[in-house]
From TrEMBL, chain A:
Name listed for the protein in its UniProt record: Succinate dehydrogenase flavoprotein subunit
Reaction(s) this enzyme catalyzes, per UniProt: a quinone + succinate = fumarate + a quinol
Keywords: Coiled coil, Electron transport, FAD, Flavoprotein, Membrane, Oxidoreductase, Transport, Tricarboxylic acid cycle
Coiled-coil residue windows: 458-495
Domain Fumarate reductase/succinate dehydrogenase flavoprotein-like C-terminal: 455-580
Source organism of this protein record: Candidatus Actinomarina minuta
Length: 580, 231
């Protein structure tokens, strides 16, 4: 295997919104490389639809403190309030900056950036839904990704496209570099560098029905977890209420922000019963639970009574065409339904990891629950857990998170690089990865231990036992299943033995991360004997502030995780009952 | 139902040229062609290579030629194309392996047209204003996902790889008609070149191929007209 060595001051892993925003901040100050397993414009930021909230007050009176209140309440009081203040305050400049870089936001008649309603966002701490989400039709994420990439092109940022980082080198507790696999050649590349940002996105592929891309396999969190770095709040995984039935393709909350209504098989607007004041615009955890409850009560539609309807028929063709063009096209393409005329079959879809690599507000990675900083390593975006989303993220806040904390990751890299000297990494830094790859190539292929079969069993079982509603029983069952899957994975084999674009080899390594993410999720969920935000334990239906106002830190053990905890950082908002 | 799929395979490590291989896949009419390729890769032949990511037509990874037409494999359902399929890599870019082509020349052309906002004026601390009408002028071309379906369907591009191609012109259009941009002169100068917009012979293949429904040929015509007006 050919090994090629590079030397950089800083490396960013992942080229979605968080990675690109970090790159824009860091590139002028150092020799920087951005490494992505896709092409940057293929990143899943591009699939985000509805908007990016900021209290611009373009439509009505607004205030970033109200945005912070909503975010904290939406998080079921698990978010760290000082971090939420940063998110909501810096959101305003972040949106303006993107506009200055060319982002084509939709506009109001007076030429200002248009804003729409979104779930859980209110004015005056819960009075009524707020017009806060800045949007570009229903392709806001696409526009953010394009704009950030365009900015990087104009700056001449160095990219390594279709290179997959598969190892990090940490010596004496300090980052020394990363090791990557070049997809087109099978060559190994050692990147000697003292500052690394992980912005690899989420890991929705642990579930069967998901809005996530095939590429979202938890690579960044997985790489660090295997080195003994904990993962924070992994029991909190968000299920978006409106995925296209069976396919899981996302239909933005903007559909309900523009007036769309959820209905059960009888046509009843059931959210009136679950969230009397803001109804269909309740936060995602509540709406997803409401749908699941309707379905188990026999109120689901269809031959298997397993979906509900998203009704847009009263919005009119013009609104749909102007404001929701993409999602209605998805419906026409994949379900062959005309959303102007017929309601759309939807079900909750695995969407977003609130948990991930623990960081402080400067995107510096923490190596334990006490807050010890791991020098030279940073994380931002869905891969990271600051925590600004707590137990449940509000819609639009992820696009905010990537730019606010992506920028902070870039700034932290600059600070660190200017204070330290270039390091050296020995040529044998690639040995661990080379060995892993050689093992996979040399082992004879058997169908029994194929990547796809193990992955399918993982996704099916996580869907069954660890999705919206959980109990001790289902989680214990899933723990046993994960042990079996881990044993099978030890014998995993691949059919493709080639060097050029061997994606089967890469999928085999990604499956290791998916198993890690699942183990951390299930262990953390089993230990949290309460229901909070997206984590809903039917055997512990209430929130327990006495024992669980704390973040979990999962450390990798053999087939599960060891758990430690850190108290939530409170602020001006006292935990109260979460009603909408 | 059984779907018969012929795929043009090529492995640079063992083949001197491409060859067809046949597969029979059990599929539902509602499945995506990408799902069928996965069934082959995951359960039959792990060496089959193709790009993919989002699986719902927004990332632009999986453009390929399906029954003679450029499409995204994740955006086409079995019931739309029938039970006998022929799948090849997109044309005009070097094939690396199976359905994977070298995208570098494509992205090089994209970068040539300065695809970013150019405006030296200090924008102040609030957003620049833009009327909804001005915003609408370039709405269509903001949708581009750089999948290369348009460029690799263009007969001019097939014979002259120096032609920047429809996708690059679409991305120039997105800025030339943005009221906030001041770089049109430079961009139009580039597109006036022998390898620029005037190579287009209005075959409309690009417009048919675009999975995002962009009126690509119209965008190219807009650029041609703007170039002439600018002279």
């Amino acid at each position: 295997m050919k090994v090629i060595k590079h030397s950089f001051d800083g490396v960013i892993v992942g080229a979605g919104g968080a990675g690109l925003r970090a790159a824009i901040e860091a590139a002028p100050h150092m020799k920087l490389a951005v490494i992505t397993k896709l092409y940057p414009t293929r990143s899943h930021t591009g699939a985000a639809q509805g908007g990016m909230s900021a209290a611009l007050a373009n439509v009505e009176e607004d205030n970033w403190n109200w945005h912070a209140f909503d975010t904290v309440k939406g998080s079921d009081y698990l978010a760290d309030q000082p971090a939420v203040d940063i998110l909501c305050k810096e959101a305003i400049d972040a949106v303006i900056e993107l506009e200055h870089w060319g982002l084509p936001f939709s506009r109001l008649d007076n030429g200002k950036i248009a804003q729409r309603r979104f779930g859980g966002h209110t004015v005056k701490e819960g009075t009524s839904p707020a017009f806060r989400a800045c949007y570009a039709a229903d392709r806001t994420g696409h526009m953010i990704l394009q704009t950030l990439y365009q900015k990087c092109v104009s700056m001449g940022v160095t990219f390594f496209d279709e290179f997959q980082v598969l190892d990090i080198k940490i010596e004496d507790g300090i980052c020394q570099g990363v090791v990557a696999y070049e997809l087109a050649t099978g060559d190994i590349h050692i990147f000697e560098t003292r500052a690394v940002t992980f912005a690899t996105g989420g890991f929705g592929k642990i579930f069967k029905v998901s809005s996530n891309a095939h590429s979202l396999t938890g690579d960044g969190p997985g790489i660090l977890y295997q080195k003994g770095i904990p993962l924070e709040d992994m029991e909190f995984y968000q299920f978006h209420p409106t995925g296209i039935y069976r396919l899981g393709i996302l239909l933005s909350e903007a559909a309900r922000g523009e007036g769309g209504i959820l209905r059960n098989k009888d046509g009843e607007r059931f959210m009136e019963r679950y969230a009397p004041s803001i109804k269909d615009l309740a936060p995602r955890d509540m709406v997803s639970r409401a749908i699941a409850t309707e379905i188990s009560a026999g109120n689901g539609a269809g031959p298997d009574s397993d979906y509900v309807y998203l009704d847009l028929t009263h919005l009119g063709a013009e609104t749909i065409k102007k404001k929701l063009p993409d999602i209605t096209d998805f419906v026409r393409t994949y379900v062959k339904i005309e959303p102007i005329e017929e309601p759309i079959p939807v079900q909750p879809t695995a969407h977003y990891a609130m948990g991930g690599i623990p960081t402080d507000v400067n995107s510096r990675v923490l190596s334990d629950e006490k807050g010890t900083v791991l020098p030279g390593v940073y994380a931002a975006g869905e891969a990271a857990c600051v925590s600004v989303h707590g137990a449940n993220r509000l819609g639009t806040n992820s696009l905010l998170d990537i730019v606010v904390f992506g920028k902070r990751a870039g700034q932290s890299m600059v600070d660190y690089v200017t204070q330290t000297k270039p390091n050296q990494l020995s040529d044998n830094a690639s040995n661990d990865l080379t060995k892993k790859i050689t093992n996979l190539i040399e082992k004879e292929h058997t169908n029994e231990f194929s990547v796809a079969k193990i992955r399918k069993d993982l996704q099916d079982s996580m869907e069954e036992n660890a999705k919206i509603f959980r109990t001790k029983e289902t989680l214990e069952k899933q723990t046993e299943i994960l042990e079996e899957l881990r044993e099978r994975y030890e014998n995993v084999t691949i059919y493709d033995k080639g060097k050029v674009h061997n994606s089967e080899l890469v999928e085999a390594i990604e499956l290791d991360y998916l198993l890690d993410m699942s183990e951390a999720t299930v262990s953390s969920a089993l230990a949290r004997n309460e229901s909070r935000g997206a984590h809903s334990r039917q055997d512990y239906p209430d929130r327990d502030d006495t024992n669980f106002m704390k973040h979990s830190f999962a450390f990798k053990n053999e087939n599960s995780a060891n758990l430690k905890y850190r108290d939530v950082e409170l602020g001006k908002y006292e935990p109260m009952e979460r009603k909408y | 139902m059984d779907v018969s799929i012929k795929i043009l395979r090529y492995d640079p490590e063992s083949d001197r040229k491409g060859h067809w291989e046949n597969y029979i896949v059990d599929a539902e009419p509602e499945e995506r062609i990408l799902d069928l390729l996965h069934k082959i890769k995951w359960f039959e032949d792990g060496s089959l290579s193709f790009r993919k990511s989002c699986a719902h037509g927004v990332c632009g990874s999986d453009a390929m030629v399906i029954n003679g037409e450029n499409m995204l494999a994740c955006q086409v359902l079995v019931k739309e194309v029938g039970n006998s399929l022929k799948i090849e890599p997109i044309r005009g870019l070097p094939v690396v392996k199976d359905l994977i082509v070298d995208m570098e020349p494509f992205f090089d052309s994209y970068k040539k047209v300065m695809p970013y906002l150019i405006n030296e004026k200090e924008p102040g601390d609030r957003e620049r204003l833009q009327s909804p009408e001005d915003r609408d002028r370039f709405e269509d071309t903001t949708k581009c996902i750089l999948c290369a379906a348009c460029t690799t369907s263009c007969p001019v591009f097939w014979t002259a790889e120096s032609y920047v191609g429809p996708a690059a012109i679409v991305n120039a259009h997105r800025f030339v008609f943005d009221s906030r941009d001041e770089g049109s002169k430079q961009r139009l100068e580039i597109l006036k070149d022998v390898n620029g917009a005037f190579r287009c012979r209005t075959a409309f293949n690009c417009t048919s191929a675009c999975p995002r429904g962009i009126q690509v040929t119209k965008a190219i015509e807009d650029i041609k007209r703007e170039t002439l007006l600018n002279n």
